[in-house]
Structure formats: structure tokens, C-alpha cells
Design goal:
The protein is an alpha/beta fold. It has 16 helices and eight strands. It folds into two domains: 178 residues, Rossmann fold, CATH 3.40.50.720; 143 residues, N-(1-d-carboxylethyl)-l-norvaline Dehydrogenase, domain 2 (Orthogonal Bundle), CATH 1.10.1040. α4 links the parallel β4 and β5. α8 packs across α13, α11 crosses α12 and α14 packs antiparallel against α15. The longest helix has 23 residues. It catalyses: sn-glycerol 3-phosphate + NAD(+) = dihydroxyacetone phosphate + NADH + H(+); sn-glycerol 3-phosphate + NADP(+) = dihydroxyacetone phosphate + NADPH + H(+).
Length: 345
Amino acid sequence: MERNTVAVLVAGSWGTALARVLADNGRRVALWTRNSAQAEEINTNRTNARFLPNASLPEGITATTDMEAALAGAEAAVFVAPSGSMREVARQAAKHVKSDALIVHATKGFESETLKRMSVVLAEELGRPEERIVVLSGPSHAEEVIDRHPTTVVVASGSMDAAEAAQDLFMNESYFRVYTNPDVVGVETAGAIKNIIALGAGLTDGLGFGDNAKAALITRGLAEIGRLGAAMGANPLTFAGLAGVGDLIVTCTSRHSRNWRAGSMLASGLRLDEVLDRMGMVVEGVRTTKAARELATRYEVEMPITSELFKVLFEDKDPSGAVGALMGRVRTHEIENPELRQSGN
């Protein structure tokens, strides 16, 4: 591949949308996919109809099933594989990535077997320092980015040089704005857990509970994200930013959200396997619910919304019963105040 090429792995909806941003920014994009028919469609028709219907892709994007060719000479490698296959994709890529290539990922989830964040998985498989990996996150539906709708995201890394390199790679003045953030743990945790809360938002909407219920779910969901993130070492301020409340709002309130749609389908009485079969695409919140429940136990953090959704997803609990269990929890404070507790007030 020629100089100024960026490799994007894989060609799902978000990977394709980010490829468009990079192409609009003057980069030659090598978009890797395992599917030869998909690669032919992208190269011949300039479409990726399964993931982004009606979108037309620019000539600067070339799809390939040859990972070595995609990564050869690439100045940056952008990993957008689902969390469940990230390790496998990174392992295949490891021997082909340039030693000085910028490594970015835009996947929101944990590795369910190990509970590791995606930046840790990439560091292990690529043999790179974890602090040099960059995560891109924030409120950003692929369906809107592909149409060049104004979008603002954040890139986080333990290396400010790496974060700023990613910022320069993706940012443009017309529709894609990028901020930097040093809090990788917070950005990755927020991006993963918000998918669980979006499942819950779809559930409450599907049950017809209205805006009051959804607003409460989003707010208390943010509290769960913050509790787990703080226990894992994140900066609490991150959860008030784009990767936190910003991404949470857009994922819980939009028709584009796969997790919201999956939750709504569950509320209609469909089983989880039926929902996933109808979706036909990865619903990250399902895998993340399992991982988050284990992380809550590990870090001794209370996550009642996550716990109830786990029961709905994997123990066949009735969705309305899960909502009732949340409403009937023992009374407590919204914000803990140790000083009041010590004074007896």
C-alpha cells in the first residue's frame, strides 16, 4: 500500500463509517473484511448494503480480504472488530503491522472471557505498550457519520502524542470533531457499559413506560457506569463528557441503536436468541452484560440495572418483573454524603 494509507479492520457499519471519515481527510483507506463478496461489492458498487443501506462510498476506500496487503506500509491501523473477535483479528494482524504504526480502536465492549478492555487485548496481541494504544469513542452513530452529519468524539490514550496523532488523523472542519482525553479506562468503561443501559432503555420503551422511566434509567445507569469506572481507576469527570453521558444519551434514545432495538424486541416477548437472529448483527450490550456483572463482583460495586438485565437476558426473567424489582429496591440516597452520615443526620 502507498504512503498515507490507513488500514481499517473490519468492514462493519462503524468501520465503514470511519473509513469514509479517513477518505474524506485525504487518506487512502484499506478496508479489511473476511467476506470476499462484501469486498467485491464495496470495490465495484461503492456500497456496503448489509451494514449501511443507501450509503455511497468514496473512491478512496479499497476493500480487501488480504490482511497483509491491507496493513503493508499503513501509517495507522484502526481496529473496529466486535469485542468477541478483537483478539483473533489483532493476532492475525500482529505480524503485518508496521512497528511505528499508530494503533487505534473504536470497539465498545470487554473481552467476556478475561474481562479485559480492548486496549489491553490489543497491547497483548500486538506487542505494544498499552499506553500507546488509542481508543476512539463518543456519541457517534455510523448511520449519521456516513452521511456526514456533525459528530463529536473523543480519543483517549496514555500517550498524548498518540492521542494527538489520532486526533489529527480523524478530525476535519466540516463534520467530524475530535477531542483528546488521557483517561483510557474511563472512556473504554463508559463506552462498554452504556450499551447495557441502552438495552434497558429499549426495554422500558417497549413496555410503554414513557419518558419518566427512561430518564430515570439513563440517570441511574450513569451512576452505575461511574461507580464501576471509579473502582477501576477512571477519572469521574470522564463520565460527564462525550464518552460518558454523551454516548449514553445517544445510544438510549435513537432508532439507530442496535442495543435499544434489541431491548425493545425483548419487551415484545421475543427470546434472546430470536432477537439476535432478527438483528443479524452484533449487539455488544448482550456480551457486555455478562462481563459487567462479573466486574461488579470483582470490584464489589453495586450495579442493580445490570443485574436485572442479566436476569432478563440469561435467566428468562419477565421484563416487567425486572422493572418492578428495580422500583422496589430498599430506599437509599441518590448521592452518598459521609459527613451527614457521621453527624447522624
